[in-house]
Amino acid sequence: MKIVKCTFHNYRNLDGVTLCFDEICNFFVGENNIGKTNALHALNVIFSGKDFSNEDFHDITLPLKIEYTVKTKDKIENINSIYKEFYLIKNYGEKKRIYSYSGNKISSTGMKCVFVDMMSNKEYKLIFTPWQKNIINKILNNLKIVKRAKKHTGDNSFIDFIGKDEKALKTQSYPYFFVKKILFKLLGNLERGEKEKSVIMLFDQPEINLHPFAQKTLISDLLNIVLKKDEEFNRLIDELFGIKKLELQLFLVSHSDRILSERYENIIRFYRVKGQVKAISGNTIKLKRDNKVSIAKQLIMQFPYFSLAIFSKAVILVEGVSEFGAITEFAKTLDIDTDYLGISIISANGEGNISAFSTLLESFGIKVFAIKDRDVFCENEKGIIYTDFVDFEDEIVRSADLGTLQKICYLLGFDFKDVTSLPLEKKNERYRYYSGKRKNPFTEREINDTAVKKLACVSVLTSKKSVITGKIIGRCLKKDQIPQVYKNVLLSAKEYADKN
């Protein structure tokens, strides 16, 4: 059994919000105090058999209503998925709540709920019989997640590990304190009697007190268990509880870009529109086939940038690495704190990737300022900002004085004595710094012209594209030398982030 959808009515600040869930793992992301933990709380109340309190009502004059859909399989046919909708209604001040459902009744209590609070210092204890201890030691000593824990805590067996004092374990090694907590909560909610069991696990900020690699390891281990790849864990629950099939579904509230797995489909982003909370579920985003291919490549190459962007209010998307390096420096020169404002700057690694990447980010409700070079202008492409001149390098050379440009070229290792070695005639065909078509090389007299020297600067910048080149450019240009197109984009992104 899996939860596939949930809609909230008159519940806290999530009135009218619908969430569509991935059947394996769901990451709730968004700024602080926007409702991510509220959604987690609602799932915990519904599937733990608890009750909503008066504080959960957004408007006390209206009933609180939760609609949720679960997916299961016909136990007889064991083929087609069956969807059942449940309605939970509670009136303010009343103790009872009303359930209704569509189709044949499926008990929601058939699904166990495990809430793991990483902030809680509460100790968890499990009592094992000698037989159970033997089984646990035999199986869990080979469990990958426990092997790592024992290696760092110096314990000989799983029983030694979980018997260790919570405070001592927490002080000794934060990551394995959380391993113990997660295993305790999961095993403590399983019991004998059914060969198949469905469990949802709720985590509120599992990254707390974990360094980046520990965060990624924790999620990797949890996903291996959910995907039934951990044979030792499968054996453990079979031996202890007779469970042949454990269906797990994860829900995680997180503020860490390091904890996300490399799929946009399992991300649910919470954001505000004119003060109203909205949410976008990644698995509801529909992309064209060509865009899907491009995005798949981008996520493989640039997932760290995407995972940071998903937490942003606005994204500035550029073609290449030189633009990326320069614009991050332009922002500093213009006194725009992109971190404080929640603005990400991303290189799409080529103009051909911008449209697809921009579409994906905008589908998550993120404002995108996408910049392309004028040389690839397309009248039919909407929502793209084009440079005023041919490309990024052309913008830089036309906006800066010759002295600044020569300084940049010098820092990039170019000596103007070698200017005759540059293919300036071909460059001039593209950039038109010098009038007329050239068949012969520039003469020594012409090389001393400012226009030809600037053409040499364009040649140097285009031949040395890199983040370092961009940063050198960004640090050398004064505020009034920043090309207007990039200045406008940064100021527009700042204005948008300030208002939202």
Characterise this structure.
This protein is α/β, with parallel strands linked by helices and 500 residues long. It has three domains: 1-106 and 265-285, Rossmann fold; 117-199 and 207-246, no CATH class; 289-392 and 480-499, Rossmann fold, CATH 3.40.50. 41% of the residues lie in helices and 19% in strands. The chain contains 19 helices and 15 strands. The protein has a six-stranded mixed β-sheet with strand order 7-8-9-3-10-11, sandwiched between helices. Strand 10 and strand 11 (276-281) form a beta hairpin. Helix 5 packs across helix 6. The protein is elongated. It starts with a strand and ends with a helix.
How would you describe the shape?
A: elongated
Helix share bin: 40-55%
Beta-strand portion reads: 15-25%
Second-tier CATH architecture of the largest domain:
3-Layer(aba) Sandwich
What's the total helix number? 19
Give the total of beta strands: 15
Query: How many distinct folded domains?
Result: 3
- Provide the gyration radius in Å: 29 Å
Low-confidence stretches: 123-128, 155-159, 161-174
- Average pLDDT level: 82
- As for the CATH topology of the largest domain, it is Rossmann fold
* Strand neighbour order, sheet with most strands: 7-8-9-3-10-11
Give the distance, in angstroms, between the N- and C-terminal Cα atoms: 38 Å
For the largest beta-sheet, the strand count, sense and barrel status come to: 6 strands, mixed
Helix/strand/pairing class, anyone?
alpha/beta
CATH superfamily of the largest domain: P-loop containing nucleotide triphosphate hydrolases
Multimerization state: single chain
CATH class of the largest domain: Alpha Beta
